Amino acid sequence: MRVRASASSGLGSAIRGLVLAGLAVLAGAGPARANMAAVQLHPAKFAPPIAVRAAGVKVESERLRFECEARAGAPSCRFEAVYTVRNPGDAAETVVGAFYGARAKVVAISAGEARVDRALSAEEGAALDEALEAAAGDQIRRQHSPLSVKDEAAGRFGFELALGPGERASLAARGTLEPGERWVPKGYGSDAVEARHLLLGKSGRERSWDLEYLVAPIWTWTGDPTIDVELVVRGPYRVSLGEGWTRQERDGATRATRRWSAHEAPAALQVLLSQDAPLLGNGGVLLGFGGTFGEGRPTTLRARLGYEANVLGWLLVSAAAETDFEKRAQLVPAVEAASPGLWVIPSVGIGLGMPVQVSPGPRVAGRLQASLMFYPVGVFAAVDYYPRAGPSADFLEGTVMLQASF
Protein backbone atom coordinates (compact mmCIF):
# COMPACT_ATOMS: atom_id res chain seq x y z
CA MET A 1 0.00 0.00 0.00
CA ARG A 2 1.23 3.52 -0.82
CA VAL A 3 0.00 5.37 2.24
CA ARG A 4 2.02 6.81 5.06
CA ALA A 5 2.02 5.26 8.51
CA SER A 6 0.20 8.20 10.12
CA ALA A 7 -2.79 7.81 7.80
CA SER A 8 -2.82 4.05 8.15
CA SER A 9 -2.68 4.40 11.94
CA GLY A 10 -5.57 6.85 12.01
CA LEU A 11 -7.74 4.75 9.77
CA GLY A 12 -6.71 1.61 11.63
CA SER A 13 -7.86 3.20 14.89
CA ALA A 14 -11.14 4.07 13.24
CA ILE A 15 -11.57 0.49 12.07
CA ARG A 16 -10.86 -0.86 15.58
CA GLY A 17 -13.40 1.56 17.00
CA LEU A 18 -16.01 0.44 14.48
CA VAL A 19 -15.37 -3.22 15.27
CA LEU A 20 -15.74 -2.66 19.02
CA ALA A 21 -18.91 -0.69 18.45
CA GLY A 22 -20.20 -3.47 16.21
CA LEU A 23 -19.66 -6.10 18.87
CA ALA A 24 -21.74 -4.03 21.27
CA VAL A 25 -24.45 -3.59 18.66
CA LEU A 26 -24.61 -7.28 17.83
CA ALA A 27 -24.90 -8.09 21.52
CA GLY A 28 -27.78 -5.68 21.96
CA ALA A 29 -29.53 -5.90 18.59
CA GLY A 30 -33.11 -7.14 18.62
CA PRO A 31 -36.44 -6.01 20.06
CA ALA A 32 -36.48 -3.91 23.21
CA ARG A 33 -38.15 -5.68 26.14
CA ALA A 34 -37.59 -3.39 29.12
CA ASN A 35 -40.54 -2.46 31.34
CA MET A 36 -43.15 -4.13 29.19
CA ALA A 37 -46.80 -3.40 29.77
CA ALA A 38 -49.38 -6.18 29.91
CA VAL A 39 -50.47 -8.00 26.78
CA GLN A 40 -53.92 -6.87 25.68
CA LEU A 41 -56.44 -9.28 24.18
CA HIS A 42 -59.34 -8.27 21.96
CA PRO A 43 -60.94 -11.64 21.13
CA ALA A 44 -63.89 -12.22 18.85
CA LYS A 45 -66.54 -13.92 20.99
CA PHE A 46 -69.71 -15.87 20.36
CA ALA A 47 -72.18 -17.43 22.78
CA PRO A 48 -75.04 -19.97 22.75
CA PRO A 49 -78.57 -18.58 22.68
CA ILE A 50 -79.95 -16.75 25.68
CA ALA A 51 -83.74 -17.03 26.08
CA VAL A 52 -86.38 -14.94 27.83
CA ARG A 53 -88.90 -17.77 28.11
CA ALA A 54 -87.41 -21.25 27.79
CA ALA A 55 -88.26 -23.00 31.05
CA GLY A 56 -89.77 -26.04 29.35
CA VAL A 57 -87.41 -26.30 26.35
CA LYS A 58 -84.44 -28.66 26.47
CA VAL A 59 -81.19 -28.44 24.50
CA GLU A 60 -80.17 -31.97 23.50
CA SER A 61 -77.02 -31.35 21.47
CA GLU A 62 -74.79 -28.59 20.16
CA ARG A 63 -72.64 -28.66 17.02
CA LEU A 64 -70.12 -25.90 16.29
CA ARG A 65 -68.01 -25.40 13.21
CA PHE A 66 -65.49 -22.61 12.64
CA GLU A 67 -63.65 -22.24 9.34
CA CYS A 68 -60.90 -19.61 9.30
CA GLU A 69 -58.83 -18.27 6.42
CA ALA A 70 -56.89 -15.15 5.50
CA ARG A 71 -58.79 -12.11 4.28
CA ALA A 72 -57.27 -8.62 3.89
CA GLY A 73 -54.18 -9.59 5.90
CA ALA A 74 -56.03 -11.05 8.92
CA PRO A 75 -58.03 -14.19 9.70
CA SER A 76 -61.77 -14.24 9.09
CA CYS A 77 -63.87 -17.13 10.44
CA ARG A 78 -67.18 -18.38 9.11
CA PHE A 79 -69.15 -20.15 11.81
CA GLU A 80 -72.17 -22.40 12.11
CA ALA A 81 -73.70 -23.15 15.52
CA VAL A 82 -76.53 -25.72 15.45
CA TYR A 83 -78.56 -26.59 18.58
CA THR A 84 -81.04 -29.45 18.68
CA VAL A 85 -83.86 -28.32 20.97
CA ARG A 86 -86.98 -30.18 22.10
CA ASN A 87 -90.15 -29.29 23.87
CA PRO A 88 -90.78 -32.30 26.17
CA GLY A 89 -94.01 -30.89 27.58
CA ASP A 90 -97.67 -31.30 26.66
CA ALA A 91 -98.16 -27.60 25.87
CA ALA A 92 -96.77 -25.47 23.09
CA GLU A 93 -93.75 -23.29 23.92
CA THR A 94 -92.58 -20.03 22.35
CA VAL A 95 -88.94 -19.15 22.91
CA VAL A 96 -87.84 -15.53 22.48
CA GLY A 97 -84.08 -15.23 22.64
CA ALA A 98 -80.87 -13.97 21.11
CA PHE A 99 -77.37 -14.94 20.12
CA TYR A 100 -74.64 -12.55 21.23
CA GLY A 101 -71.32 -12.00 19.52
CA ALA A 102 -68.43 -9.57 19.64
CA ARG A 103 -66.87 -8.93 16.22
CA ALA A 104 -69.68 -11.01 14.72
CA LYS A 105 -71.19 -10.14 11.33
CA VAL A 106 -73.99 -11.34 9.06
CA VAL A 107 -75.64 -13.58 11.62
CA ALA A 108 -78.66 -15.46 10.22
CA ILE A 109 -80.83 -17.61 12.48
CA SER A 110 -83.04 -20.43 11.25
CA ALA A 111 -85.04 -23.42 12.45
CA GLY A 112 -84.80 -26.10 9.81
CA GLU A 113 -85.38 -24.28 6.51
CA ALA A 114 -87.29 -21.37 8.01
CA ARG A 115 -85.75 -18.10 9.14
CA VAL A 116 -86.70 -17.28 12.74
CA ASP A 117 -84.59 -14.18 13.39
CA ARG A 118 -86.48 -10.99 14.23
CA ALA A 119 -86.07 -7.63 15.87
CA LEU A 120 -86.57 -7.52 19.62
CA SER A 121 -88.52 -5.00 21.63
CA ALA A 122 -86.74 -2.78 24.13
CA GLU A 123 -88.19 -4.83 26.99
CA GLU A 124 -87.12 -8.13 25.44
CA GLY A 125 -83.63 -6.78 24.72
CA ALA A 126 -83.21 -5.55 28.29
CA ALA A 127 -84.32 -8.90 29.71
CA LEU A 128 -81.89 -10.78 27.46
CA ASP A 129 -79.02 -8.44 28.34
CA GLU A 130 -79.68 -9.08 32.02
CA ALA A 131 -79.77 -12.84 31.41
CA LEU A 132 -76.44 -12.68 29.54
CA GLU A 133 -74.75 -10.79 32.37
CA ALA A 134 -76.10 -13.36 34.85
CA ALA A 135 -74.84 -16.24 32.70
CA ALA A 136 -71.28 -14.88 32.83
CA GLY A 137 -70.72 -16.29 36.29
CA ASP A 138 -67.70 -16.21 38.56
CA GLN A 139 -65.76 -18.88 36.67
CA ILE A 140 -65.86 -17.11 33.34
CA ARG A 141 -65.14 -13.74 34.95
CA ARG A 142 -62.06 -15.12 36.68
CA GLN A 143 -60.62 -17.07 33.77
CA HIS A 144 -61.82 -15.32 30.62
CA SER A 145 -62.92 -12.00 29.21
CA PRO A 146 -66.74 -12.37 29.35
CA LEU A 147 -68.96 -11.20 26.55
CA SER A 148 -70.73 -8.13 27.90
CA VAL A 149 -73.52 -5.97 26.55
CA LYS A 150 -71.30 -3.04 27.55
CA ASP A 151 -68.77 -4.09 24.92
CA GLU A 152 -69.13 -1.68 22.00
CA ALA A 153 -68.25 -4.48 19.59
CA ALA A 154 -70.97 -6.82 20.93
CA GLY A 155 -74.06 -7.49 18.83
CA ARG A 156 -77.42 -8.99 19.82
CA PHE A 157 -79.17 -11.15 17.20
CA GLY A 158 -82.78 -11.91 18.17
CA PHE A 159 -85.05 -14.83 17.25
CA GLU A 160 -88.44 -16.33 18.08
CA LEU A 161 -88.99 -20.10 17.99
CA ALA A 162 -92.34 -21.84 18.43
CA LEU A 163 -92.39 -25.53 19.41
CA GLY A 164 -95.44 -27.73 19.68
CA PRO A 165 -95.83 -30.49 22.33
CA GLY A 166 -92.98 -33.00 21.94
CA GLU A 167 -91.60 -31.15 18.92
CA ARG A 168 -87.89 -31.14 18.12
CA ALA A 169 -86.10 -28.53 15.98
CA SER A 170 -82.61 -27.52 14.87
CA LEU A 171 -81.89 -23.92 15.83
CA ALA A 172 -78.94 -22.65 13.80
CA ALA A 173 -76.94 -19.43 13.74
CA ARG A 174 -74.57 -18.74 10.87
CA GLY A 175 -72.28 -15.80 10.24
CA THR A 176 -68.74 -14.47 10.35
CA LEU A 177 -66.36 -13.70 13.21
CA GLU A 178 -63.34 -11.44 12.88
CA PRO A 179 -60.76 -12.59 15.49
CA GLY A 180 -59.25 -9.67 17.41
CA GLU A 181 -55.50 -9.13 17.20
CA ARG A 182 -53.42 -9.28 20.35
CA TRP A 183 -51.48 -6.19 21.27
CA VAL A 184 -48.04 -7.17 22.56
CA PRO A 185 -46.04 -4.19 23.91
CA LYS A 186 -42.37 -3.77 23.08
CA GLY A 187 -41.31 -1.74 26.10
CA TYR A 188 -39.89 1.76 25.74
CA GLY A 189 -37.93 1.01 22.59
CA SER A 190 -38.53 0.53 18.89
CA ASP A 191 -36.85 -1.84 16.47
CA ALA A 192 -34.05 -0.14 14.57
CA VAL A 193 -35.98 0.16 11.31
CA GLU A 194 -39.02 1.71 13.01
CA ALA A 195 -36.90 4.13 15.04
CA ARG A 196 -34.93 5.27 11.98
CA HIS A 197 -37.76 5.34 9.46
CA LEU A 198 -40.68 6.91 11.29
CA LEU A 199 -42.80 7.31 8.17
CA LEU A 200 -42.48 3.97 6.39
CA GLY A 201 -40.43 1.66 8.60
CA LYS A 202 -42.13 -1.57 9.59
CA SER A 203 -40.39 -4.45 11.30
CA GLY A 204 -41.48 -8.03 10.85
CA ARG A 205 -43.05 -9.54 13.96
CA GLU A 206 -45.23 -12.48 14.84
CA ARG A 207 -48.94 -11.64 14.97
CA SER A 208 -51.64 -13.39 16.99
CA TRP A 209 -55.45 -13.31 17.02
CA ASP A 210 -57.94 -14.66 19.57
CA LEU A 211 -61.26 -16.39 19.05
CA GLU A 212 -63.46 -17.37 22.00
CA TYR A 213 -66.70 -19.34 22.27
CA LEU A 214 -68.52 -18.90 25.57
CA VAL A 215 -70.05 -22.18 26.76
CA ALA A 216 -71.49 -20.84 30.05
CA PRO A 217 -74.78 -19.48 28.64
CA ILE A 218 -75.85 -23.00 27.59
CA TRP A 219 -75.97 -23.90 31.28
CA THR A 220 -79.04 -21.68 31.67
CA TRP A 221 -81.09 -24.17 29.60
CA THR A 222 -82.37 -27.53 30.85
CA GLY A 223 -80.54 -30.69 29.82
CA ASP A 224 -76.87 -31.60 29.52
CA PRO A 225 -76.23 -31.51 25.78
CA THR A 226 -73.18 -32.89 24.03
CA ILE A 227 -70.99 -30.26 22.41
CA ASP A 228 -69.16 -31.18 19.21
CA VAL A 229 -66.65 -28.63 17.93
CA GLU A 230 -64.87 -28.64 14.58
CA LEU A 231 -62.26 -26.04 13.72
CA VAL A 232 -60.71 -25.71 10.25
CA VAL A 233 -57.87 -23.22 9.82
CA ARG A 234 -56.13 -22.58 6.52
CA GLY A 235 -52.66 -21.10 6.17
CA PRO A 236 -50.73 -19.01 6.86
CA TYR A 237 -51.98 -19.44 10.43
CA ARG A 238 -50.93 -21.79 13.21
CA VAL A 239 -53.50 -22.97 15.74
CA SER A 240 -53.00 -23.23 19.51
CA LEU A 241 -55.57 -25.22 21.50
CA GLY A 242 -55.79 -26.91 24.87
CA GLU A 243 -55.36 -30.59 25.56
CA GLY A 244 -57.74 -33.27 24.32
CA TRP A 245 -58.22 -32.08 20.74
CA THR A 246 -57.80 -34.36 17.75
CA ARG A 247 -55.81 -32.65 14.99
CA GLN A 248 -55.16 -33.40 11.34
CA GLU A 249 -52.94 -31.53 8.89
CA ARG A 250 -54.01 -31.84 5.29
CA ASP A 251 -53.69 -29.74 2.12
CA GLY A 252 -52.33 -26.75 3.99
CA ALA A 253 -55.16 -26.72 6.54
CA THR A 254 -55.46 -27.77 10.19
CA ARG A 255 -58.63 -29.59 11.25
CA ALA A 256 -59.24 -29.98 14.99
CA THR A 257 -62.21 -31.67 16.67
CA ARG A 258 -63.35 -32.11 20.26
CA ARG A 259 -66.45 -33.39 22.14
CA TRP A 260 -67.69 -32.50 25.62
CA SER A 261 -70.85 -32.76 27.62
CA ALA A 262 -71.98 -29.23 28.41
CA HIS A 263 -71.33 -29.40 32.15
CA GLU A 264 -67.87 -30.94 31.65
CA ALA A 265 -66.81 -28.27 29.15
CA PRO A 266 -64.84 -25.21 30.25
CA ALA A 267 -66.71 -21.94 30.62
CA ALA A 268 -65.17 -20.81 27.33
CA LEU A 269 -63.32 -22.40 24.44
CA GLN A 270 -60.30 -20.37 23.41
CA VAL A 271 -58.49 -20.51 20.06
CA LEU A 272 -55.24 -18.71 19.32
CA LEU A 273 -54.28 -18.12 15.69
CA SER A 274 -50.68 -17.06 15.01
CA GLN A 275 -48.74 -15.98 11.94
CA ASP A 276 -44.95 -16.12 11.71
CA ALA A 277 -43.06 -12.87 11.35
CA PRO A 278 -42.29 -12.04 7.72
CA LEU A 279 -38.63 -12.30 6.87
CA LEU A 280 -38.46 -8.88 5.17
CA GLY A 281 -39.95 -5.57 6.24
CA ASN A 282 -40.17 -2.11 4.77
CA GLY A 283 -37.66 0.61 5.63
CA GLY A 284 -37.34 3.89 3.79
CA VAL A 285 -35.14 6.40 2.02
CA LEU A 286 -31.59 7.34 3.11
CA LEU A 287 -30.09 10.76 2.40
CA GLY A 288 -26.57 11.77 3.47
CA PHE A 289 -24.17 14.65 2.91
CA GLY A 290 -20.57 14.97 4.08
CA GLY A 291 -17.03 14.40 2.89
CA THR A 292 -14.32 11.87 2.13
CA PHE A 293 -10.64 11.87 3.08
CA GLY A 294 -7.58 9.70 2.57
CA GLU A 295 -3.79 9.97 2.61
CA GLY A 296 -2.54 11.33 -0.68
CA ARG A 297 -6.06 12.04 -1.87
CA PRO A 298 -7.91 15.37 -1.75
CA THR A 299 -10.75 15.83 0.71
CA THR A 300 -13.96 16.09 -1.31
CA LEU A 301 -17.65 16.48 -0.75
CA ARG A 302 -19.79 13.36 -1.00
CA ALA A 303 -23.55 12.72 -0.97
CA ARG A 304 -25.52 9.49 -0.85
CA LEU A 305 -29.09 8.59 -1.71
CA GLY A 306 -30.47 5.13 -1.16
CA TYR A 307 -33.16 2.84 0.15
CA GLU A 308 -33.10 0.58 3.19
CA ALA A 309 -35.17 -2.50 4.04
CA ASN A 310 -34.89 -4.82 7.05
CA VAL A 311 -34.80 -8.43 8.15
CA LEU A 312 -36.69 -8.98 11.45
CA GLY A 313 -36.42 -5.29 12.30
CA TRP A 314 -32.73 -5.11 13.26
CA LEU A 315 -30.73 -6.32 10.25
CA LEU A 316 -30.78 -3.46 7.74
CA VAL A 317 -30.17 -4.10 4.04
CA SER A 318 -29.52 -1.09 1.82
CA ALA A 319 -28.49 0.03 -1.64
CA ALA A 320 -27.18 3.58 -2.14
CA ALA A 321 -25.71 5.72 -4.88
CA GLU A 322 -22.81 7.99 -3.85
CA THR A 323 -21.13 10.83 -5.74
CA ASP A 324 -18.75 13.77 -5.33
CA PHE A 325 -20.67 15.73 -8.02
CA GLU A 326 -17.51 15.88 -10.19
CA LYS A 327 -15.80 12.67 -11.25
CA ARG A 328 -16.65 9.82 -8.97
CA ALA A 329 -19.87 7.86 -8.68
CA GLN A 330 -20.44 4.47 -7.07
CA LEU A 331 -23.20 2.08 -6.06
CA VAL A 332 -23.01 0.53 -2.59
CA PRO A 333 -25.03 -2.50 -1.45
CA ALA A 334 -24.61 -3.03 2.29
CA VAL A 335 -25.93 -4.91 5.30
CA GLU A 336 -25.89 -3.49 8.82
CA ALA A 337 -26.83 -4.83 12.27
CA ALA A 338 -28.46 -2.11 14.37
CA SER A 339 -29.61 -1.78 17.95
CA PRO A 340 -33.12 -0.56 18.91
CA GLY A 341 -33.88 3.08 19.54
CA LEU A 342 -34.60 3.53 23.26
CA TRP A 343 -36.11 6.94 23.96
CA VAL A 344 -33.02 9.17 24.36
CA ILE A 345 -30.55 6.39 23.48
CA PRO A 346 -29.76 6.39 19.74
CA SER A 347 -29.76 3.36 17.48
CA VAL A 348 -26.20 2.23 16.75
CA GLY A 349 -25.28 0.06 13.79
CA ILE A 350 -22.28 -1.54 12.16
CA GLY A 351 -22.05 -3.42 8.88
CA LEU A 352 -20.30 -4.33 5.68
CA GLY A 353 -20.70 -3.01 2.15
CA MET A 354 -19.26 -3.38 -1.32
CA PRO A 355 -18.76 -0.08 -3.17
CA VAL A 356 -18.85 -0.58 -6.93
CA GLN A 357 -17.30 2.43 -8.64
CA VAL A 358 -18.88 3.19 -12.02
CA SER A 359 -17.07 6.47 -12.75
CA PRO A 360 -14.36 7.34 -13.74
CA GLY A 361 -13.84 3.60 -14.28
CA PRO A 362 -15.14 0.30 -12.91
CA ARG A 363 -13.59 -0.71 -9.61
CA VAL A 364 -14.76 -2.69 -6.58
CA ALA A 365 -13.95 -2.00 -2.91
CA GLY A 366 -14.76 -3.42 0.50
CA ARG A 367 -16.44 -1.28 3.14
CA LEU A 368 -16.75 -1.26 6.92
CA GLN A 369 -19.50 1.14 7.93
CA ALA A 370 -21.22 2.39 11.06
CA SER A 371 -24.13 4.64 11.92
CA LEU A 372 -25.47 6.42 14.97
CA MET A 373 -29.06 7.53 14.45
CA PHE A 374 -31.23 9.45 16.87
CA TYR A 375 -34.48 8.43 15.24
CA PRO A 376 -34.43 9.88 11.67
CA VAL A 377 -31.22 11.93 11.94
CA GLY A 378 -27.65 11.02 12.78
CA VAL A 379 -24.13 10.32 11.58
CA PHE A 380 -22.87 7.82 9.03
CA ALA A 381 -19.21 6.77 8.75
CA ALA A 382 -17.40 4.35 6.45
CA VAL A 383 -13.91 3.11 5.66
CA ASP A 384 -13.41 1.77 2.14
CA TYR A 385 -10.46 -0.29 0.95
CA TYR A 386 -9.74 -0.30 -2.79
CA PRO A 387 -7.30 -3.07 -3.78
CA ARG A 388 -4.76 -2.57 -6.55
CA ALA A 389 -6.35 -2.54 -10.00
CA GLY A 390 -3.87 -2.68 -12.89
CA PRO A 391 -1.64 0.39 -12.73
CA SER A 392 -3.78 1.97 -9.98
CA ALA A 393 -2.44 1.54 -6.45
CA ASP A 394 -4.56 0.32 -3.56
CA PHE A 395 -5.75 2.90 -1.02
CA LEU A 396 -7.96 3.50 2.02
CA GLU A 397 -10.67 6.13 2.01
CA GLY A 398 -12.81 7.39 4.88
CA THR A 399 -16.26 8.98 4.71
CA VAL A 400 -18.22 10.92 7.36
CA MET A 401 -21.72 12.22 6.67
CA LEU A 402 -24.75 13.66 8.33
CA GLN A 403 -27.60 11.29 7.43
CA ALA A 404 -31.39 11.48 7.47
CA SER A 405 -33.81 8.60 6.96
CA PHE A 406 -37.45 8.77 5.95
Tell me how many strands there are. Answer: 28
| Structural class label | mainly beta
- The quaternary structure here is single chain
How far is it from the N-terminal to the C-terminal residue, by CA?
39 Å
In DSSP terms (H or I, runs of 4 or more residues), the helix count works out at: 4
Tell me the helix content.
Answer: 10-25%
Outline type: rod-shaped
Strand content: over 45%
Mean pLDDT: 86
Q: Give me the Rg, rounded.
A: 32 Å
Low-confidence stretches: 1-12, 14-36
Main sheet specs: 8 strands, mixed
Describe the structure.
Helices cover 12% and strands 52% of the residues. The protein is built from four helices and 28 strands. Strand 19 and strand 20 form a beta hairpin. The protein is mainly beta and 406 residues long. The strands form four sheets. Strands 1, 2, 5, 8, 10, 12, 14 and 17 form an eight-stranded mixed beta sheet that branches. An eight-stranded mixed beta sheet has the order 7-6-9-4-3-13-16-15, with no helix packed on it. The protein has an eight-stranded antiparallel beta barrel with strand order 18-19-20-21-23-26-27-28.
Q: How would you sum up this structure in a few lines?
A:
Helices cover 12% and strands 52% of the residues. The protein is mainly β and 406 residues long.
Distinctive features:
single chain; 406 residues; mainly beta; 8-stranded mixed sheet; 4 helices; 52% strand; rod-shaped
Please describe the topology of this protein:
Elements: H1 5-28, E1 44-46, E2 50-51, E3 58-71, E4 74-86, E5 93-102, E6 104-111, E7 114-115, H2 122-135, H3 138-143, E8 154-163, E9 168-177, E10 180-181, E11 189-190, H4 192-196, E12 207-214, E13 226-234, E14 238-240, E15 246-250, E16 253-261, E17 268-275, E18 280-294, E19 297-311, E20 315-323, E21 329-338, E22 341-342, E23 347-353, E24 356-359, E25 363-364, E26 366-374, E27 377-386, E28 395-405
Parallel strand pairs: 1-12, 3-13
Antiparallel strand pairs: 1-5, 2-5, 3-4, 4-9, 5-8, 6-7, 6-9, 10-12, 11-22, 12-17, 13-16, 14-17, 15-16, 18-19, 18-28, 19-20, 20-21, 21-23, 21-24, 23-26, 24-25, 26-27, 27-28
